[in-house]
Amino acid sequence: MELITELLTKDYFVLFLVIGLGTAIGNVRVKGISFDTSAVIFVAIFFGYLYNLYGVNFSIPPIIQSVGLVLFIYTIGMQAGP
């Protein structure tokens, strides 16, 4: 348990974990429907929930948060536009 807690305090490990899990979940199709890139934001929300619930101290650097949000909005707009 200490190893997991130690890893979750590393900013960039959490960042790549959220992106990786979101991408993996986004590729799952159920009856032709998938979350695609939206799954990343749902995984990020889930990690935020874990932070509040268990008090695990992890954070994403603020510049990465801003760039991530902009890229997320852009990709959703590009998917929904056509």
Task: Characterise this structure.
- The protein is mainly alpha-helical.
- The chain has one domain.
- It has four helices and no strands.
- Helix 2 packs across helix 3.
- The radius of gyration is 14 Å and the shape is globular.
Key attributes of the depicted protein:
single chain; 82 residues; mainly alpha; 72% helix; globular
Supply the number of helical segments. Answer: 4
How far apart the termini lie comes to 46 Å
Count the beta strands: 0
Decide which structural class fits the backbone.
mainly alpha
Q: H/E order of the elements?
A: HHHH
Radius of gyration: 14 Å
Q: Helicity range of the residues? A: over 70%
Strand content: under 5%
Largest β sheet strand count, sense and barrel closure: none
SSE layout:
Elements: H1 2-8, H2 11-26, H3 38-54, H4 62-80
Helix pairs in contact: 2-3
Short description:
The chain contains four helices and no strands. The chain is an all-alpha fold and 82 residues long.
